[in-house]
């Protein structure tokens, strides 16, 4: 019954869809720590043997710690179901297909378990933090003015339209937005992210709050959410 409710919820939120893919990975149900809720894991071991490993590098932990020795205040942000922020290509959807007692489904958003999923998400987060958020001119006008101010971007036409558009991830993949950043735009926090976790330190509380505001605006522009329950501030 819990599996049925979980699949139903994923379908309603548009995270999965019915599939006719020749692939069909099995599922494994794991009980969460609270002893009540379940987590649906998909066994992609066979699928992963056919996937070519991406050459995109994960950062070294030692490199991420550079600069923390002078910090007095710290924060750690955990992305909420971060992989789901990335849309799957049509070919990737077929590979992600899984089977359960209630049918054959495939992912619309990137799932956990596929070999290159962490590398793809790391690339997205790096682009987000390093300033690759310059949007096409016709889209910049639809971004809230406060976001443009924080990112130091100029809105074409001199203002922001009142009409609101759907989330950008509904109409395009994140890779279509990787437009070269202008030279004056630097990183928000430097390279302090590891997959779906972002750590940052500051010399003062005020600086930490200022950096947090900049980071949240940047994540907002990329439609990436933060899990407050799993994040820590001011440690």
Automatic annotation (TrEMBL):
Gene3D superfamilies assigned to the protein according to its UniProt record, in alphabetical order: 3.30.70.270, HIV Type 1 Reverse Transcriptase, subunit A, domain 1
All copies of domain Reverse transcriptase, residue ranges: 32-128
Pfam family, one: RVT_1
Protein name: Reverse transcriptase domain-containing protein
Annotated source species: Phytophthora fragariae
């Amino acid at each position: 019954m819990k599996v049925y409710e979980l699949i139903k919820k994923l379908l309603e939120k548009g995270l999965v869809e019915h599939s006719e893919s020749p692939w069909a990975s099995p599922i494994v149900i794991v009980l969460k720590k609270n002893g009540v809720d379940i987590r649906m894991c998909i066994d992609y071991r066979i699928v992963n043997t056919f996937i070519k490993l991406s050459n995109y590098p994960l950062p070294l932990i030692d490199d991420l710690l550079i600069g923390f020795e002078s910090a007095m205040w710290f924060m750690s942000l955990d992305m909420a179901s971060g992989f789901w922020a990335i849309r799957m290509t049509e070919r990737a959807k077929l590979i992600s297909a899984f089977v359960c007692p209630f049918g054959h489904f495939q992912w619309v958003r990137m799932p956990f378990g596929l070999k290159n999923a962490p590398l793809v998400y790391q690339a997205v987060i790096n682009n987000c933090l390093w300033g690759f958020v310059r949007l096409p001119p016709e889209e910049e006008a639809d971004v809230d003015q406060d976001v443009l101010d924080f990112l130091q971007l100029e809105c074409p036409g001199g203002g922001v339209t009142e009409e609101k558009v759907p989330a950008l991830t509904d109409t395009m993949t994140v890779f279509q937005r990787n437009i070269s950043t202008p030279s004056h735009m630097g990183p928000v926090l430097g390279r302090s992210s590891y997959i779906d976790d972002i750590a940052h330190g500051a010399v003062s509380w005020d600086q930490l709050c200022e950096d947090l505001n900049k980071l949240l605006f940047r994540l907002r522009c990329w439609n990436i959410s933060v899990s407050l329950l799993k994040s820590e501030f001011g440690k």
